[in-house]
Design goal:
Number of helices of chain B: 11
Bound molecules: adenosine-5'-triphosphate, magnesium ion
Shape of chain B: elongated
Oligomer: heterodimer
Strand content of chain B: under 5%
Structural class of chain B: mainly alpha
Low-confidence stretches of chain A: 314-318
Order of helices and strands of chain B: HHHHHHHHHHH
Largest sheet of chain A: 6 strands, mixed
Number of strands of chain A: 14
Shape of chain A: elongated
Distance between the termini of chain B: 31 Å
Mean pLDDT of chain A: 89
Strand content of chain A: 25-35%
Helix content of chain A: 25-40%
Number of domains of chain B: 1
Structural class of chain A: alpha/beta
CATH topology of the largest domain in chain A: Rossmann fold
Strand order of the largest sheet of chain A: 6-7-8-3-9-10
Chain lengths: ~325, ~270
């Protein structure tokens, strides 16, 4: 399989801020790559380099086989972009926005109009089609912007945080749309701060922090990389939390994490239910009253914590 | 082929800008309200104390008003571009396979159309207060065309400054700093011969004086009693205006394009 996106050693500096610090990335044709990272990780900067909006200081990138710097004009014909902030014109109607984009992709007058109507229908914007975008809700603008990225049926699509700012219902709707889109063979690079979003949509995930890919693989591979399962338990008092910590210390295969306020302990373990039994036995022996205990597979948040030493900020806020 | 494509792209962007003028008519209202005020102020308040030998002041005034109006109209190019580049829409444009020049060509073209509309309104205003065209219709048409051409060239200068300051508010304040002197240290409202020596020299060589004098000539609003001007641009105002247009375009089209690339690549 050929790669639709290839980046090698991309560096981009803004004064003393290093937005990209040697970013390497490969996205095979027809797959979805999730670029996952906290605020300021460099996701948007990477997308801007891939979509010819920004020249990197060092390194090179090819998209759809074309060099983003030297063949920018040619490349723009085969990419679609929906940036982090909706790039729609407030004074135009939804229809006029898409029609304009079609004309600038050189689809011709007739085809541009047809395509605009088609996309408005597909994104559930038919009723609002002839109203100025000024009066659209956030979700409607977002959908219109996504429609704008699809006007020319691009072979490589870039979506920068497509669901940020959407309510949960709109987010689910957007996920469905995106999943349907890539069934058609489009390559998609998607950035997100939401771990569950990357988990749900992406074939491959690249975790990026401080302008660099720090881990890469499928959601499952990343979880395995962090090792086994998580033993989670809650107790009634802070004192018992301390006891539980010391009692279970030698079962842990990684750093334990305790939440003092919730009296909650997370222990990375290996060995499945046998470890769970052993833990319960030990806690019973120390007379620790366990309110709740269980095993779970690591989430991407655990991945993040293990890789960067801090939680993914998008999830922290919840 | 490439040129045709670029022009087509420019016209798509121009159409987008014109839709804005239609949806937000304040812009048009404000770009005509001020000059109409000026007409009333000078025709009825100051006009009585300004004496132009051999002709009515209102006839003298209107060409100056037209020049002022299209110059102010051309400043919209600067604030419009400054506004555009702070918005997400410019990223959309830049990710599309359209001509690089289309944003600037579209902007200057739509402002030209806007100015054409404004000048028609101002001519009607002029006719109402007593201004008359005393030349042939063809000459009058040439006068309008020359004013618009001059404004078009000037709007490339405004484009450059708008992209330099990158904020519509800053642009609006900054543009007054030079728009005022070049509009008023000129023959727009008074005869330049009447100005004190230093200002008089500036006024005589001011491009705005040339275009105002050209418009007066083409509309037939000249006085037989005025002394013949003693500097070349005012002796041949039409030629001088065209010369200024060429100079402006040669300087500011490349500068604006260069600044556009710098302003967006961040
Ligand atoms: N135009 C700019 N000027 C100066 N610094 C910038 C600019 N654009 C980005 N940066 C800096 O580069 C770093 C990476 O920014 P980037 O927007 O790529 O992050 P991100 O991963 O998209 O973050 P977010 O999740 O907040 O969108 C940040 O530290 C940011 O402050
Ligand atoms: Mg971002």
């Amino acid at each position: 399989m050929t790669d639709a996106i290839v980046a090698e050693g991309l560096v981009k500096r803004y004064g003393s801020v290093v937005a990209l610090n040697g970013l390497d990335l490969k996205v095979p044709e027809g797959t979805i790559m999730g670029l996952l990272g906290p605020n300021g990780a460099g996701k948007t900067t990477a997308v801007r380099v891939f979509t010819t909006l920004l020249d990197a200081d060092e390194g090179s990138a090819r998209v759809a086989g074309l060099d983003v710097r030297k063949q920018a004009n040619e490349l723009r014909k085969s990419i679609g972009l929906s940036g982090q902030y909706a790039a729609v014109d407030d004074n135009l109607t939804g229809f006029e926005n898409l029609d304009m984009v079609g004309r600038l992709y050189h689809l011709g007058r007739v085809r541009s109009r047809e395509r605009a109507r088609e996309l408005l229908a597909r994104f559930d914007l038919e009723d609002a089609a002839d109203r100025p975008v000024k009066g659209y809700s956030g979700g409607m603008r977002r959908r219109l912007d996504l429609a704008g990225a699809l006007v020319a049926k691009p072979s490589v699509l870039f979506l920068d945080e497509p669901t940020t700012g959407l309510d949960p219902r709109s987010r689910l709707g957007m996920w469905d749309v995106i999943e349907e889109l890539v069934k058609g063979g489009t390559t998609l690079l998607l950035t997100t701060q939401y771990l569950e979003e990357a988990d749900r949509l992406a074939d491959q995930i690249a975790v990026i922090d401080h302008g660099k890919v720090i881990a890469e693989g499928t959601a499952d591979q990343l979880k395995d990389q962090v090792g086994g399962e998580r033993l989670e338990l809650s107790v009634a008092t802070p004192a018992e939390l301390g006891t539980a910590r010391s009692t279970l210390a030698d079962l842990a295969v990684g750093a334990m994490e305790s939440d003092e306020r919730q009296h909650h302990l997370t222990v990375p373990v290996a060995g499945g239910s046998a470890v769970l039994m052993e833990a319960i036995r030990r806690l019973d022996g120390e007379s620790v009253k366990v309110l709740d205990i269980g095993l779970r597979r690591p989430t991407l948040d655990d991945v993040f914590l293990a890789l960067t030493g801090h939680h993914a900020e998008g999830d922290d806020k919840k | 082929m490439k040129l045709l494509q670029a022009l087509a792209d420019g016209s798509v962007v121009a159409k987008r800008n014109l839709i804005k003028i239609k949806r937000v008519p304040d812009l048009l209202v404000f770009s005509t309200a001020a000059p109409i005020m000026f007409v009333l102020l000078f025709a009825y308040v100051f006009g009585g104390s300004i004496d132009i030998p051999g002709m009515d002041y209102r006839e003298f005034l209107m060409a100056g008003i037209f020049a002022q109006t299209v110059l102010f109209g051309a400043t919209i190019t600067g604030s419009g571009l400054a506004e555009d580049i702070t918005k997400g829409i410019i990223d959309r444009f830049r990710s599309l396979p359209m001509a690089r020049s289309a944003v600037l060509v579209g902007r200057t073209t739509s402002d030209l159309v806007n100015n054409a509309l404004v000048i028609v309104i101002m001519m009607v205003t002029g006719l109402i207060v007593g201004w008359r065209i005393r030349s042939s219709p063809l000459e009058a048409l040439a006068g309008v065309a020359l004013l618009l051409l001059f404004a078009y060239a000037f709007s490339w200068a405004m484009a450059w400054i708008g992209l330099l300051v990158r904020s519509p508010e800053v642009f609006n304040n900054a543009s007054f700093i030079f728009i005022f002197p070049i509009t008023y240290i000129a023959n727009t409202f008074v005869q330049s011969e009447r100005l004190p020596a230093v200002l008089r020299h500036i006024a005589e060589w001011n491009p705005v004086s040339a275009v105002t004098a050209a418009a007066r000539e083409l509309f037939g609003n000249t006085s037989p009693l005025s002394p013949p001007p003693d500097v070349w641009p005012l002796q041949h105002p039409v030629l001088a205006s065209l010369g200024w247009v060429v100079i402006f375009l040669l300087i500011f089209v490349p500068l604006a394009n260069y600044q556009y690339k710098r302003a967006v690549a961040r």
